[in-house]
């Protein structure tokens, strides 16, 4: 038995804006930050659950406050009571207090806060079972998994029964797929060379280093001045050649018509997809862009706030790639629903990585997806960004552009105690 005795929320920020790491056309100078949750238990400091949600600096304190407002819903609960009825628990945390739900519902700061807390529960559960999260999930029966999910608002597209049959379909071959991942890793792309604030020299150097390390797929930021976007695309193409993949990410800068005009001008650089061309809420706009762009893929999801939005994006045939975010959706439970929806609508999931700890999370999601849900690597690429991994106890391991299978128990999101102290805002050493 494990009782959650206290929910601690930390405001952790990294001054990434100093070097313009993570910069894009919408977010010129982000400070990668985490609202970091620790679930303390009656089993002492060796048994704690960790989770975080990602923000880009100012306002992280609002997310911390939201965690504190929700904390009483976890304090005093037995882990086993939660995990036995995980789907119901999820609904209670996200909707059980209607005064707090009013702040969303299931979106914005309150949902980000729920995500950090729910992911911390999964981390604690997996640690108690001595398994990495992907394995905890992959070992569950279809019925156990479906019991973890809340299908409210999606049953017109996916019922629990359908979810069970999707999972049953993949029961055979799980061990082979796990063995394959252990041998080859999970394929990935890198965003690290293409940040908007990087100079031409820095982009070229980072491309060359990445190619030496075996990377085949690269992402570029666009959405600034279109001539400048073209110039940078030409530089990247020159460095990576025609045979490697180039994705483009506009971070919501354009209107619908503008997206089409601009992408036609960038088409000569053969982009694999255009990510977040326009507002993340514009489902029909994405569908229109996709229809008119033809052979350039449309990707979105890092700002898609819940399963209902993804359901509609898929129903409207608005996206070619689903870029769900592990810390923006209401934690792993909601992520799994989206994986199932994506399997049903045959949309490859390429999760949003980077930030603080997002790569650590998403490796579990994509590996579980491959083993137990989609059974396919076609069109799937995990995002990789090479910042801040050294702050984690169990950081991602990359080999030749592939994620290696994580084996430590939990969700790989536990941050080193020194990092937590030094980067706490505003008192940590990093902020003095
Ligand atoms: C502000 C952030 O770095 C974003 O630019 C980043 O998440 C980006 O959209 C990505 O796809 O990695
Ligand atoms: Mg993006």
UniProtKB/TrEMBL annotation:
The question of whether Transmembrane is a record keyword is answered with: no
> Can you give the residue ranges of the Mandelate racemase/muconate lactonizing enzyme C-terminal domain?
200-296
CDD domains per the UniProt record, alphabetical? rTSbeta_L-fuconate_dehydratase
Q: Which UniProt keywords apply?
A: Lyase, Magnesium, Metal-binding
Q: Name one GO molecular function term.
A: magnesium ion binding
| Cofactor(s) it depends on | Mg(2+)
Entry superkingdom: Bacteria
**Catalytic activity of the protein:** L-fuconate = 2-dehydro-3-deoxy-L-fuconate + H2O
- Kindly name one Pfam family recorded for this protein: MR_MLE_C
Q: What InterPro entries does the record tag this protein with?
A: Enolase-like_C_sf, Enolase-like_N, Enolase_C-like, L-fuconate_dehydratase, Mandelate_racemase_C, Mandelate_racemase_N_dom, RHMD-like
Query: Which segments of the protein form a coiled coil according to its record?
Result: none
Gene3D superfamilies attached to this UniProt entry: Enolase-like C-terminal domain (3.20.20.120), Enolase-like, N-terminal domain (3.30.390.10)
Give the EC number(s) under which this enzyme is classified. 4.2.1.68
Question: From which source organism is this entry?
Answer: Cobetia crustatorum
Q: Does the keyword Magnesium apply?
A: yes
What GO biological process terms does the UniProt entry carry, in alphabetical order?
carbohydrate catabolic process
Name listed for the protein in its UniProt record = L-fuconate dehydratase
SMART domains for this protein: MR_MLE
């Amino acid at each position: 038995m494990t009782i959650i005795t206290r929910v601690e929320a930390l405001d952790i920020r990294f001054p990434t804006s100093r070097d313009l790491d993570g910069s894009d056309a919408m977010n010129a100078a982000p400070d990668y930050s985490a609202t970091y949750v620790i679930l303390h238990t009656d089993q002492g400091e060796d048994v704690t659950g960790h989770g975080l949600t990602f923000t880009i600096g100012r306002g992280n304190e609002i997310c911390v406050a939201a965690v504190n407002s929700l904390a009483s819903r976890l304090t005093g609960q037995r882990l086993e009571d939660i995990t036995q009825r995980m789907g119901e628990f999820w609904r209670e945390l996200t909707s059980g207090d209607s005064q707090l739900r009013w702040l969303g519902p299931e979106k914005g700061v309150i949902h980000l806060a729920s995500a950090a807390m729910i992911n911390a529960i999964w981390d604690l559960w997996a640690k108690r079972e001595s398994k990495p999260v992907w394995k905890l999930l992959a070992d569950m029966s279809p019925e156990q998994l479906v019991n973890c999910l809340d299908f409210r608002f999606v049953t017109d597209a996916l019922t629990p029964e359908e979810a069970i049959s999707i999972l049953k379909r993949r029961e055979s071959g799980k061990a082979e797929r796990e063995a394959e991942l252990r041998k080859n890793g999970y394929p990935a792309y890198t965003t690290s060379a293409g940040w908007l604030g990087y100079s031409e020299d820095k982009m070229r150097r980072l491309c060359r280093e990445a190619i030496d390390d075996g990377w085949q797929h690269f992402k570029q930021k666009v959405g600034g001045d279109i001539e400048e976007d073209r110039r940078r695309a030409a530089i990247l193409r020159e460095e990576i050649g025609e045979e490697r993949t180039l994705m483009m990410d506009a971070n919501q800068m354009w209107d619908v018509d503008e997206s089409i005009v601009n992408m036609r001008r960038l088409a000569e650089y053969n982009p694999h997809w255009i990510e977040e061309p326009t507002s993340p809420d514009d489902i029909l706009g994405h569908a229109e862009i996709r229809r008119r762009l033809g052979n350039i893929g449309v990707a979105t999801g890092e700002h898609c706030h819940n399963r209902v939005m993804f359901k509609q994006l898929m129903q409207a045939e608005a996206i070619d790639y689903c870029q769900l975010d592990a810390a923006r959706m209401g934690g792993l439970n909601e992520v799994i629903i989206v994986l199932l929806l994506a399997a049903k609508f045959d949309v490859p999931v390429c999760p949003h990585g980077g930030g603080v700890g997002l790569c650590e999370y998403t490796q579990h999601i994509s590996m579980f997806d491959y083993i137990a849900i989609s059974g396919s690597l076609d069109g799937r690429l995990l995002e990789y960004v090479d910042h801040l991994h050294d702050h984690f106890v169990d950081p991602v391991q990359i080999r030749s552009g592939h994620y290696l299978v994580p084996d430590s128990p939990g969700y790989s999101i536990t941050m080193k105690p020194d990092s937590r102290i030094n980067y706490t805002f505003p008192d940590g050493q990093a902020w003095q």
